[in-house]
Design brief:
- By secondary structure, the chain is mostly helical.
- It has one domain: MetI-like fold (Orthogonal Bundle), CATH 1.10.3720.
- The protein is about 70% helix and about 0% strand.
- The protein is built from 13 helices and no strands.
- Helix 2 crosses helix 13.
Length: about 280
C-alpha cells in the first residue's frame, strides 16, 4: 500500500535531487559541446560570486524577519478569532483571504500600494505632508517592503493551523485555570503555548521553506533590484538557470539551497523536540 507514495516520492524528489547533485559537477552544455566533468569548479565559482553572498545575506535577513513575524501574527489572530466575539466568521475570512490569492496577484496588489507618487502608501504619506518615498526603488527599503508582503500573505495560512489546534484543546483546561484564578496570560503561557508546540514546529518548518522559496513576489515587485538589494537565493538561482542558462552553476546553487534547508530542518526538529508535547 505504501508503494505508490514511495514511487512518487522517489521519482519527483530523490531522483531529481541525485541528478542535480551529479549535474553540479559538470559544466553547462553549449550547443554541440556536451557537458564535461569539472569537479568542484561550480562551487569555487559560487564562493567567489558576490551576488551569491549578497543573496544569501538578504535571505538570512528576510528569514529572520518573516518567520517570527508571520508566526507571531498568526498566533495572535488565532487567539482572537477563537474567542466568542462579534463578527468572528468575518474576521476569520478576512484573515484567511490573502492565503487563497495567487502570489502574482498579491504582488500586483502591493505593487499598487508601493507605487511612487500614486500608490496608496504615498497618498497617505502625502496627506500628512511627508516627503515621497520610492519603497521598491530604494536599497534601504526594497527588502523590507518585500518582507511586509510575505508576512501579510503567510500569516493567515499559519493562523488556520493554530486555530485548529486551539479548538482541539480540552475546554476543561480553561475552566480549571479559571477556578485556580489564573489570568489569561498565565493560562496561555503555562497551558496553551506548551500544548501548541507540535503546531508551532510544523508551522516553523513551513515558514523556513517559504522564506527560502520566495521568488514570485521578487519577480513582480523588484526583480532583485535595486543593485541586488532584494535578491534572494531562489531568485538568483532562477536568473542563473533560466536567464544566463548556466545549468551547471544553477545545479550547484540548488544543492547548497537543499543543504541549507535540510540543516535548518534537522536543527529545528532536534532543538524543538524537547519542548513538544504530543499528549
Amino acid at each position: 500500500m505504501l508503494l505508490p507514495a514511495f514511487v512518487l516520492l522517489l521519482a519527483f524528489t530523490h531522483v531529481p535531487a541525485i541528478a542535480t547533485l551529479i549535474d553540479s559537477f559538470y559544466s553547462t552544455p553549449r550547443g554541440s559541446r556536451p557537458a564535461v566533468w569539472v569537479g568542484l569548479e561550480n562551487y569555487r565559482v559560487m564562493a567567489g560570486d558576490p551576488v551569491f553572498w549578497k543573496a544569501l545575506t538578504n535571505n538570512l535577513w528576510f528569514a529572520l524577519a518573516t518567520i517570527p513575524a508571520s508566526i507571531g501574527l498568526a498566533l495572535v489572530m488565532a487567539l482572537w478569532v477563537n474567542e466568542r466575539i462579534a463578527g468572528r466568521a468575518f474576521l476569520r475570512m478576512a484573515y484567511f483571504t490573502p492565503t487563497v490569492l495567487p502570489m502574482v496577484a498579491v504582488a500586483n496588489i502591493w505593487l499598487f500600494f508601493y507605487t511612487p507618487q500614486y500608490g496608496l502608501l504615498e497618498q497617505v504619506r502625502g496627506a500628512f505632508g511627508l516627503p515621497a518615498q520610492n519603497w521598491l526603488g530604494d536599497q534601504r527599503t526594497a527588502l523590507g517592503a518585500v518582507t511586509v508582503v510575505a508576512v501579510w500573505k503567510e500569516a493567515g495560512f499559519f493562523m488556520i493551523f493554530y486555530l485548529a489546534a486551539l479548538q482541539g484543546l480540552n475546554p476543561s483546561l480553561r475552566e480549571a485555570a479559571a477556578i485556580e484564578g489564573a489570568s489569561r496570560w498565565t493560562f496561555f503561557r503555562r497551558v496553551q503555548w506548551p500544548l501548541l508546540m507540535p503546531t508551532t514546529l510544523f508551522v516553523m518548518v513551513n515558514a523556513v521553506i517559504n522564506a527560502v522559496r520566495m521568488v514570485d513576489h521578487i519577480v513582480v515587485l523588484t526583480r532583485g533590484g535595486p543593485d541586488n538589494a532584494s535578491t534572494l537565493l531562489l531568485f538568483h538561482l532562477y536568473q542563473v538557470g533560466f536567464n544566463f542558462w548556466d545549468s551547471g552553476y544553477a545545479a550547484a546553487l540548488t544543492m547548497v539551497l537543499l543543504a541549507l534547508l535540510g540543516g535548518v530542518a534537522l536543527l529545528q526538529f532536534f532543538v524543538l523536540d524537547r519542548r513538544v508535547h504530543y499528549k
